[in-house]
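User: My collaborator sent over this chain with a note saying "see what the structure looks like." That's all I know about it. Can you take a look?
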Amino acid sequence: MSDFFWFSDEQWARIEPLLPTDTRGMARVDDRRVLSGIIHALKNGGRWADCPREVYGPKKTLYNRFVRWAERGVWEDIFAALAGAEDVPDKVFIDSTCIKVHRCAGGGKGGLWRMVSASPKAAATQSSTLSAMRKAARSF
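Assistant: Without extra context I'll predict from the sequence alone. Here is the result:
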């Protein structure tokens, strides 16, 4: 079980009071088990299907609990309580190689677009991508 994430007793003692306790309907899967599964999924690329059922429970339970707690603000409460318990760093660096963005955020296809000029001097000078305002200003 070394490859699986599991909260220690000390960590769980700090987190457990912050979790919602209202239960309705069927018996709940243990919160410690579910929260450990959520952390395991997030540490391994966010794939719920990669969480072993025999360790963390059903992947649908992990996902549903994650979404419901997000809607209720439980995650913000947990992060605020844990951040207040220790020194907060002045700067935090994020490795952008593992952050997924929407396909529109990366720019368009086709590479850099340059304006072709009849003047050899203007053609020799390289500039960044031209905006519509810059083109309009040159036309006057």
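A starting point for your reply to your collaborator: Helices lie at 9-15, 31-43, 53-56, 59-72, 74-85, 120-124, 132-138.
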